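Ticket #4471: structure export looks truncated?
Reporter: QA, pipeline team
Priority: medium

Steps to reproduce: submit the single chain below to the structure queue and open the exported record.
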Amino acid sequence: MARILLEIITPERVVIREEVDIVTAPGIVGEFGVLAHHAPMVAGIKIGALRYRVGDREEWIAVSGGFCEISGNRITFLVETAERAVEIDVERALRAKERAEKRLQEYYLKREEIDYARARAALQRALARLLVAEKGKAGHPR
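Actual output as written to the record:
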């Protein structure tokens, strides 16, 4: 099977640079998959779980905000943050989820003025990190 070069880059580091079989990403207009020799494309990326497969190994990465470009049998993601499953502190993600849920509850009950978009994004990031931590345990086979 032909492969495509996957690159995931944040302002701090290159997270991944590997030839893979398939990439599935959380696009702004919906999840999409990319195989080798995909047509050129640019897409916005939202907070969520990106996954890729190499043979029988499937890897998961939590990403937030950015875009990707597909060109010349390469897919490059430029995102604000990216964390492999093994890098995620589950306890910290759970605490972040609980904080965000509490802030949103206060907003809905009109007890507190908060930045709704910021609290919602914090919840989405925490949920993505928890999903990736669960699904991506040590790159288990599919």
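Status: closed, not a bug. The export was complete when the record was re-opened. Leaving a note from the reviewer for reference: The CA atoms of residues 105 and 111 lie 9 Å apart.
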